[in-house]
Amino acid sequence: MSVHTQTHTGAPAAARSAPAVPNKMIARDVKVFYGAKQALKGINVEIQENKVLALIGPSGCGKSTFLRCLNRMNDTIENCRVEGLIALDGEDIYGRSIDAVQLRARVGMVFQKPNPFPKSIYDNIAYGPRIHGMASGRDELDEVVEKSLQRAGLWNEVKDRLREPGTGLSGGQQQRLCIARAIAVSPEVILMDEPCSALDPIATAHIEELIDELRENFTIVIVTHNMQQAARVSQKTAFFHLGDMVECDDTEEIFTNPRDERTQGYITGRYG
Amino acid sequence: MQITVLVLILALLTVIGFQMGRTRAAASVGGRVVELHSVPSYHGFYVALWAGLPALFLFVLWTASEGWLVMQMVLASLPSRLTTGDTQSLSLLKADILNIAHGISTGRESDPDVAAAAKHYNALHAISGWSLLVIGSSLAALGLAYGRQHIGPDLRARNRVERVVSIALIVCSMVAILTTVGIVLSLLFEALRFFSAVSPLEFLFGTHWSPQMAMRADQVGSSGSFGAIPLFAGTLLITVIAMVVAVPIGLMSAIYMSEYANPTVRTWLKPILEILAGIPTVVYGFFAALTMAPFVRTMGQNLGLDVSSESALSAGIVMGVMIIPFVSSLSDDVINAVPQSLRDGSYGLGATKSETIRQVVLPAALPGIVAAVMLAVSRAIGETMIVTMAAGLTANLTANPLEAVTTVTTQIATLLVGDQEFDSPKTLSAFGLGLVLFLVTLSLNMVALRVVQKYREKYD
Question: Interface pTM (ipTM) of the complex?
């Protein structure tokens, strides 16, 4: 399937952004139903490689639902039905040839609340590589753990206590541990669902810096309620409203020159 | 008769007090109820409590001490030739008086003095009843008047009533605690009597159990032996068999119910599984004795094994089946309590369902599962009926599950069945066994509770 070549007709702004950047993932007319209730009403988004896409919008607008479609986390929810096309590197992720489990190793996820496993810091990081058989032997695993923790900026804080439980870390450290855990399986895309909403401003600043650094190696999609955060960390921003994607453009464009009235209203704080 | 009347009067006065308190409270502020410190119904309860409680206390105290007081008065009026005996003849005398007073024939010619005493007893008893009625009712009326007098806008009726309620709650919880203490103490004292006859060392470490005592010195089998090791070993053997059956099956079904079953299946399956817990153990017992034991024996014979018709294996298997719902229901709750976020985190890393269950959910739920198993173990140790019916009464010291064994609880039951003399070590040994059993299950439960507490700290 050659979805790469498809262009998004509804968004002429996409043409203005650098066309050289390939699309890592695309979503075409994605509709999601929880039972009879429709949560997403046909979403079209391109996610460009090595960029950060921020999803903003008022609560209940479907940002998280959309995010969870991207690695099929919605499969675990009963009566959830997804329609439309979502492709990763041009391959339909809801297609027959893709297994949700393998997909999630390529599209990792970091959650709103830090959720370290009740294991040691080391085992938390080693969990993914172990189940995917990515490291053969102790030394290689040690290396993966160290590298992941270093990339998540947590190595210096925890290198002497790798055997202590991950639940004993502070909230911000726990969240960086979860990010380290996600990058340990070397995904291509990392999805972050309000990763800073349970953290204090200092921990938030840490994570934001980290996101900016991770962009080099990963494609990142982040859901956030914090408009400043979206402006700081993302290159692209999509505004969701009541299950619709209202507009998606360069972050600067969205914040300085929104085309839709609803976007303008939301980013200036008139509602939401 | 007087007691019924008194109870009726008290109930009536309490209801009247409630109504009175309510209306008077409302009247005291001219119907503007908001000006009261407490809403009128609290004033009602306040007066009702004043009417009911003091009289109730009097009633309880009176009935508790009446019998003893009346008897003392009767004894004091008896000629001293009857009352100077030792404790035993004195209690016999008391029993005689009571029997005659209640019109029960003692079967022998009664002393005229005793007959007179019985008459005296009845008279005093009647007087006591009537005075209780009069004093109780007047106390209730007085209380009602007193409470009513205090009603006013500023009366903190709510606080007072709630104080009484909280005291009542404390008393209720004390009942359970005191009962436990009482049971432990009675167990302890009887066990001490046993240990004064049989040395604790012989009891705890002896390997021969044959609890009999000679009535005469020349009797055959005059020496009993009280080495309880075969009982402990039998209990352990059966408990282990039961756990080998119950833990894997219970745990697996818990995992199925909480992780794999869809909600419809789950809503049906869980109650059905819990029905197993509602079957009386005696029913399990005859299932074990009439179905399981012959089955095990036939199977064993087909394999060329020598299986006794009452075997530890059949009792253990049936006991395990009985315990399955314990393990599965408790483990199911614990597994459900593992936060969904942990599962999501694992799925988000590309783990499969079984990897998630084995490596994240079960380790997180482990403390709770351990606690569930501990509770199941103490249930298995305490179980009596199945073993009595299916595993026999022979105190064999063996590790072979195909032989008959007996357990601590079964021995306690057989030792105390029927008429027994309570001064022989044979009977008293039951209390020694009971004490050991109690200590073991108590410590198991305490360990289980500690583990559960630790688990709670983690996820709240």
Answer: 0.85
